[in-house]
Structure formats: structure tokens, C-alpha cells
Amino acid sequence: xxxxxxxxxxxxxxxxxxxxxxxxxxxxxxxxxxxxxxxxxxxxxxxxxxxxxxxxxxxxxxxxxxxxxxxxxxxxxxxxxxxxxxxxxxxxxxxxxxxxxxxxxxxxxxxxxxxxxxxxxxxxxxxxxxxxxxxxxxxxxxxxxxxxxxxxxxxxxxxxxxxxxxxxxxxxxxxxxxxxxxxxxxxxxxxxxxxxxxxxxxxxxxxxxxxxxxxxxxxxxxxxxxxxxxxxxxxxxxxxxxxxxxxxxxxxxxxxxxxxxxxxxxxxxxxxxxxxxxxxxxxxxxxxxxxxxxxxxxxxxxxxxxxxxxxxxxxxxxxxxxxxxxxxxxxxxxxxxxxxxxxxxxxxxxxxxxxxxxxxxxxxxxxxxxxxxxxxxxxxxxxxxxxxxxxxxxxxxxxxxxxxxxxxxxxxxxxxxxxxxxxxxxxxxxxxxxxxxxxxxxxxxxxx
Length: 448
Description:
It is a single chain. By secondary structure, this protein is α+β, with helices and mostly antiparallel strands. The protein folds into two domains: 7-155, Serine Threonine Protein Phosphatase 5, Tetratricopeptide repeat (Alpha Horseshoe), CATH 1.25.40; 162-447, Porin (Beta Barrel), CATH 2.40.160. Helices cover 27% and strands 44% of the residues. The chain contains ten helices and 18 strands. The strands form two sheets. The protein has a 16-stranded antiparallel sheet that branches. Strands 2-3 form a two-stranded antiparallel sheet. Helix 1 runs antiparallel to helix 8 (110-123), helix 1 packs antiparallel against helix 10 and helix 6 (76-88) runs antiparallel to helix 7. The radius of gyration is 28 Å and the shape is elongated. The two termini are 14 Å apart.
């Protein structure tokens, strides 16, 4: 999803010059009769709302103005202030409706049209925002105001229906098969020696991925979002572990105030060593909820029916997971994200049935000269429902992971390079499933 400038950015640039400009005056100065005929209590409420907005308390102003607006929806002054409060309190869709209602009565109010443009920008509707800003520029605002509007327009991302991402790189994998280091394991109460093919084996190879995203606006804040992804890992020696993964997701995405909801359908097909490994179909509802300007809560669920083509159907079954997380922005260039995830898998064999619980913490920071850094440790515990015939206890795994990535973007070219490292340590009560794995990647990517 393209990044859109925060709704308060334009206000910070333009507020002082706008209030001083007769050409862009607020509706109060254009429609004095509304204020003159209003009861004193209504004027006092509006005055208090202005004070709250100046104190950066838009939620309080919004709650104060709502009853007044409900009692007299024809009052332009109240509607305008409520629109400002809605926009600044992360309710851009409501702000759009309020500003449109004013302009339907009087389209010659550049200040209102400017606020409408800001609301469209906050919704990510860049083209509509540009149209409103250009209409304001056509009204010949003061030079400084016009320069600020043009600067803001240039900072907005272009509204593209399609986006493509192509990447390729090199991979070193210390344990391609995720096999144990110890070649002797206890099975049926006796020691067994594992074949070389079942043990830890390392290799290097090449990676390639191609992704495409398409957004089709439907109505207002509703859109159809479609994402396609193909990736390939090609090992130099261990061809039997080469992987081809194709996935597609498509479904509606809509905004309600500052909240974002999506309901995509999923399809995934995986080939291992040129043979079909698994196919899955499912659904993955998601929601993103802004709590403050810096704190965001996200939640997601995924339900899948999965067929394993290499297991004669015994591992076929269903998988579902639920996750919730909180992202806190430390500033414009860094954030922390904490995530909790629960998952369950049901198959035709009870010793393959399992449930898992995992937590992770991620840190991302944008650095000077186009660099960025990402670090994410995590731990997941998985418990199996029954024991396999070869073992005397049920399998219990604890997987420790660490992911680190250093990337550099080259200006606005869409080209970036990244160096990545990931570590996995699966600690199991059954030595057959214990392994450690290190992966190092070097990639170059281009976005169109």
C-alpha cells in the first residue's frame, strides 16, 4: 500500500498563511449571517471547539461539536469545524462528507475545498486530492500559500492502479533440509543411524521473485485489492529442494474513518524439486486500527484447506491462525512492532495435528543516505496432539528465530539492494526434529 502523507502535514505548512488570507477565509467570514443569527450557546460551543483544535485536542472538539451539528445541520460554521475535527481525529471519510455538504451549497469556498483535498489525501485518494488542490490554485491564492500547496502536491505519491516488484539474488543456506546434526536417533526404543540425505546439508543458490499488485476503486473508500506473487529458490547442488511458490490473494479493502479493513481470498501452490508439494485455498480477514498518531493495532485471521500431494492424502487438512499486534512509531523514521500468533492444524493423522503459540518483536529504522535496518527476534512453541508410533512421547518443539536486514534505496529510481540474515533453532524433545539453520541473502530489487 502506498504511503500517504499524514493528514496534519498540510495543516502544519499552511495554517498560518491560510488564516491570514482573505481569499481562503474560513466559512465564518463568508457567511456572517449564520453566526449572527445563531444562539449564543452555539457560538460559545464553536469558540470552545476552536480553542480545543488549537490545543491539538481534535477528539474533544469532535465530541463537543457533534450534538450541535445534529441539532442544526444547516449551519456551515459548525459543519466546517466538525469536518476539521473529524479530519484531525483520524476520521477522514466523515470529513469528506462534511466538506462536500458545504461545497454543495456554495462551491466558491477555497478554504473548504482545501480541507476536502486534505481529507482525500488522508484517505489515500491522491487523484481526488490533486483535483481539489488545483481548483484552489486556480483561485489565485497568495503566493506563499500557492507555493505550499504545490509543494504538497509534489510530495504526494502518484495514484497507480498497478505496481510491480522484481528481485533476484544469492542465497547461502547452512541446513537446506532442516535436518538434525546428530545422525543417531532413538526410534521404537532402539538407536537408528540416519542416512546422509536426512542429515543437515548446506548449499548455495539463487533466488528470484516477481510480485504484482492491482487496486480497483469501487465506491468511495471501497476498493478491490489483488496481489500476485511468484518466487523461486534454485540450489546449486541439492536440486531436490528447489522451490517454486505461486500465490494470489484478492478481495475488498475499505476504509472507515482511519480504520482499514480487508477480506481477501487466498490461493497458494508449492512445487518442491519440480514436483507438486501442496495446494491451499483460504480466506484472511484483516483490520488496522489507529489508536493515536503513533500507535496502531492490527489483527488478522487466516483459514486454509490444504492438500499435500506427496503424502497420499494423510496430511491433508485445515490450518487456521489468528494474530494481533501493536505498532508504535518512535518518530517519522522508526517503529516497534509486537505480535502474538496462535495457530492450529488438523489432519487425517492425530500425531500430525498440532497447535502453536508464538510471539515476536520487530524494530525498523530509516537511516541516512537511503539506508534502512530491520531486526525481528521471535519464539514459537508447537505441541502435537498424539505420539508417533516410533516414539514414546508426543512431539514438543520450541522454535527460536532471528531475522536481520540492511537495505539501501537509490533515490526515486525504485531500485534497492538488501543484505539479509536469518537464524532458526528448533529445540525438540525428539532429536529427529532438532535442527539449526543459518541463511544469508543478498538481493537487488526494482519497483515499477
